From TrEMBL:
Keyword Cell membrane found: no
Protein name: Uncharacterized protein
Coiled coil: none
Keywords: Glycoprotein, Leucine-rich repeat, Repeat, Signal
Organism: Stephania yunnanensis
Length: 264
């Protein structure tokens, strides 16, 4: 059952504790302003919560929030500011979390490692998110999609990739890190993430030498490295991936041997 809500005005607190019989709530028509307070204490059957596309400016999560069954939380396209709330770690059943296109800032906290069912994490387009890529995210062996694009993150990606590559079975398919301030090399361990289909690293400050291990990525369909400093791209790419022909328009960088290139 899906309750229909069309609420507008100065919504400062959204408390749905009386909807404990519902398994789905969609609130995209709230047009609320001010704070969104997740203080649910008895919505143990709620599976899907979508509050995207509103004007909420603050995200407050009650540390005693009880959403034992919540699998999908979509809060993108709001105006949240401040840091990512630590209390989100209590949502241990989450499979999909979307906080993209907000104004969240500070470093990414080490809270997501507690979400052992999480397979999609989108924190993209939060220009005030800074700091390095937490290696704790590498402990999410079941993660399929990680989008941290369009932020202001810095540092390298080696620690994260190294930790993730040690998983007995890695599931990561989509890795979007483009348009940050990332530096450093591409680690050889990237080639151990054999489920990867899409990699975007363009628009960073990385000094990229394409590791030969990328030749192991038999499922790779999209590779974007434009905007980074490439070390001998002709040699490194032809050695590792010359037998692969990534379909246009899915490959983007300066022309190496053996690739179809996307049009500018």
């Amino acid at each position: 059952m899906q309750p229909q809500h069309n609420i507008s005005g100065q919504v400062e607190k959204l408390d749905l504790r009386n909807l404990s019989g519902y398994d789905t709530y969609e609130g995209t028509a709230l047009e609320g302003k001010g704070s969104l307070t997740l203080s649910f204490t008895n919505l143990t059957h709620l599976l899907f919560l979508d509050l995207s596309g509103n004007l909420f400016e603050a995200l407050v999560v009650n540390p005693f929030v009880k959403l034992d069954s919540l699998g999908t939380l979509n809060l993108n396209l709001n105006k949240f500011k401040g840091s990512i709330p630590d209390a989100l770690a209590n949502l241990t059943s989450l499979q999909q979390l979307d906080l993209s296109a907000n104004g969240l800032g500070g470093p990414i906290p080490d809270i997501f490692v507690k979400m052992t069912s999480l397979h999609t994490l989108n924190l993209g387009s939060n220009i005030n998110l800074v700091g390095g890529l937490p290696k704790s995210l590498g402990g999410l062996c079941q993660l399929k999609t990680l989008d941290l694009s369009e932020n202001s993150m810095s540092g390298g990606i080696s620690e994260f990739v190294d930790v993730l590559s040690r998983c007995a079975n890695t599931s990561l398919e989509v890795l979007y890190l483009q348009n940050n301030n990332l530096t450093g090399p591409l680690p050889d361990s990237l080639g151990h993430l054999k489920s990867l289909t899409n990699i975007k690293l363009g628009g960073n400050k990385m000094h990229v030498h394409i590791p030969m291990s990328l030749g192991r990525l038999s499922r790779l369909e999209e590779l974007e490295i434009n905007g980074s400093s490439l070390c001998d791209p002709q040699k490194s790419l032809s050695v590792s991936l010359s037998s692969r022909r990534l379909p246009s328009p899915w490959f983007s960088m300066s022309a190496p041997t053996g690739f179809l290139l996307s049009p500018d």
